[in-house]
Amino acid sequence: MKFVRYDRNGALRLGVLDGDSVIDLLDAAPGGVAAGMLAAFADMTRLIAAGNEAIRLAKAALRSAGKAARSPLADVKLFAPLAPALILCSGENYWDHREEKPQVTRKDPEFFLKTGLGVIGQGDAIVCDPRVTRKLDYETELLIVIGKAGRHIPASRALEHIWGYTVMNDVTARDRQVTLRADGSSVYNLGPGKNFDTCAPIGPAIVTADEVGDPQRLALRTYVNGELRQSNTTEKMIWTCAQLVEFFSTFITLQPGVVISTGTPGGTAWGTDAELSGRKPMRRDVVTAGGYLKPGDEVVCEIEGVGRLVNRVVAAA
Questions:
Q1: Which of these ranges, 1-5, 35-39, 59-63, has the smallest mean pLDDT?
Q2: What is the pLDDT of residue 263?
Q3: Is 105 helix (H, G, I), strand (E, B) or coil?
Q4: For residue 221, which phi and psi values (nearest 5 degrees)?
Q5: How far apart are alpha carbons 41 and 37 in whole angstroms?
Q6: Beta strand 200-208 with 162-169: parallel, antiparallel or unpaired?
Q7: Which residues does residue 301 pair with via DSSP β-bridges, in sequence order?
Q8: Domains in the chain, start-ordered, CATH in brackets?
């Protein structure tokens, strides 16, 4: 199933995608649903925490939905499908992305955080603010949504803790992220490089894990103004989704609604930036970036079976 949050007459509502329609969960809720489940139908984190029972009742709502519970998707304003306080991120998780930038040797996944204050949804604007950065970059990433709490989760059981997946664009300020020393080595500053307004477009929907199947067999693509810039598959991750769940649960108890971003492949604009020691990728299947994002650009982040996230870049007011 594909769950969304959307605007209906100024109110935030939860819905399920059904072809070209959005089914409102509260309006379509089957008779006799307990008050606790009705509360879950109004809050995405509660819905996720309710697990398989919520999915079962949502399927029943989908089957019985009348015309009054349906809205054309084209007429609906979608919000980000959830509003995490923090996003757990793993960088450098594809070899071709490592190869297009300064080398960092590590034995564990890169661990950094993005603030939920930067989350935006489908169709929202990515703000290009020169006071923040002059090197605004895109990164299409698969985002894991945790459904079952756990700590020290072994990789062999990790997929049992995943409720679903969505798409994230890990928008990055490269000139904040990377500082070059006089000797040519670099220093990473992942705080300012990854955290600013509109730095985390997410959406359009959370697709439940049962519908996605194997998360390591998903094609991933990025288009900028229709040009294919990134093209890879989650099969090429260095650390799998299960291994990342194991890794992050070593440090903190993962709760329902926690999200983990899984890194981006090569093809970013950084790879063509000699000023930041980028190394131009030698590939014929994608268009080499001619520069960083600028106002007017349209960015499409697409992951097979999960969704197509579209945002346009605008100048800061």
A1: 35-39
A2: 96
A3: coil
A4: -140, 150
A5: 6
A6: antiparallel
A7: 222, 309
A8: 2-78 (2.30.30.230), 82-315 (3.90.850.10)
**C-alpha to C-alpha distances, 120 to 5, 82, 202, 236, 301, nearest whole angstrom:** 12, 10, 6, 27, 14
Q: Is 236 helix (H, G, I), strand (E, B) or coil?
A: helix
| Cβ contact 91:178 at 8 Å | no
Pairing of strands 178-180, 186-188: antiparallel
Q: How many residues does the chain have?
A: 317
Q: Which two tokens stand for residue 26?
A: 């509260």
Tracing tokens 């450098």 back to the chain, one arrives at: 92
pTM exceeds 0.90 for this model: yes
- Under 8 Å CB-to-CB from 191, ≥6 apart: which residues? 112
Of 188, 163, 164, 170, the closest CA to residue 178 belongs to 188
- Is residue 150 within 8 Å of 247, Cβ to Cβ? no
Asked which of 149-158, 199-208, 269-278 is least confident by mean pLDDT, the reply is: 269-278
Distance between CA atoms of 308 and 302, rounded to whole angstroms? 4
**Integer Cα distance of 317 and 129 in angstroms:** 8
The burial of 71, by beta-carbon neighbours within 10 Å (0-12 exposed, 13-18 middle, 19 or more buried), is given as middle
